[in-house]
Every structure is written in C-alpha cells, then in structure tokens.
Amino acid sequence: MKLVVYFLVFVAIVIQFIRPDFKNPAVDENVALNADPHVMSVLKTSCYDCHSNETKYPWYQNVAPVSWIMSDHIQRGRKALDFSNWANIDPKVKLERLQRATQVINNDMMPKHDYLLMHKNAVLNKDKKQTLEKFFDSQILELGGSTSTLKKFNI
Ligand code: HEC
Question: How much is the pLDDT for 154?
Fold first, then answer.
C-alpha cells in the first residue's frame, strides 16, 4: 500500500515536468475583432481565454494534468474560432462558425463546463446570450448569410 502511494506521488511530480507552451501569439489590431464595447466585454469574459490570443492564464496553468487539458482547449479553441484573427478567417468558414455559435451558446455547450467551474463570471445569462446572438446575427448578415437557422437544437 505504502509503495502505491509513493509511486503515485512520484508520478504526480514527474508529470509536472511536461509543460505545455503557454505563450500567447502577438495580437495584430488590424485583423483582430473590434466590435461594440458591450459585445467585446461579453466575448472577452466568456470566450477569449480559448478563442483569441489574449488568453488569461490562472495560477493552475502550471499544474499538470490540468495544464494539459487547458492547453488542448486553447489550441483547439483558437483553431475553431479565433477572434484575434477575425479579418483573416475565410468568409465561408466564418459564416458556418457564426451560425454554430448561436446554437452552442443556447445549448450551454460554450463556454465549456469544466472552464465555468473555475470562471463563474464567464457564465452566460439570458442578457449576455442575447447580446452575443445579436452580434453573431449582424455578422452573418454582413457576410450575406441567413440568420434563420435553428437557434437551438436537441442533443
Ligand atoms: C475553455 C475553453 C473554451 C471557452 C471558454 C469557449 N470555447 Fe468555444 N470551443 C472550445 C474548443 C476546444 C472548441 C473546439 C471544439 C470542441 O472541442 O468542442 C470550441 C469550438 C467552438 C465553436 C465551433 C463549434 C462547432 O461545432 O463548429 C464555436 C462556434 C465556439 N466554440 C464558440 C464559443 C463562444 C461563443 C464562446 C463564448 C461564449 C466559447 N466558445 C467559449 C473551447 C472553448
């Protein structure tokens, strides 16, 4: 029994040496999203940690294996939708992601649940959802898309 405990402590220490690279890429203001301050404030508190190059890292960024999960979320989040690279996103891809964005927030799939456990202020109430939905719709219209897609779906 004692050996098992020693082993687990050993593993917990060793994994700390596997550190993800958490450097934020530079933000180019010319291509970054610049929307209404109210919209920006909701996006920044609820989405930017995974969907931009302005990620704010908590103290547990250094604690494996939480750090690995965080790194994975940030990498995949930026790949799916990067507000810091807004002007450079292919319009077709952007349109599709914007239409999905309304659905994922209304289904409480974004922000991710494990993230919300540690970021209570990122929870989207009805008002914030409406703010984002309006913004997503305005962007969809700008791209010539249709906003009449399903706002919510059954999963
Ligand atoms: C904790 C990190 C995290 C936060 C915070 C977060 N996302 Fe995501 N998001 C992801 C990851 C990771 C993906 C990649 C797909 C997946 O794993 O679900 C993603 C994918 C997406 C997609 C593409 C989904 C698809 O099915 O095509 C949209 C749209 C999206 N997020 C919107 C948002 C919005 C809007 C917010 C803020 C209200 C937000 N996300 C907050 C991590 C996050």
Answer: 60
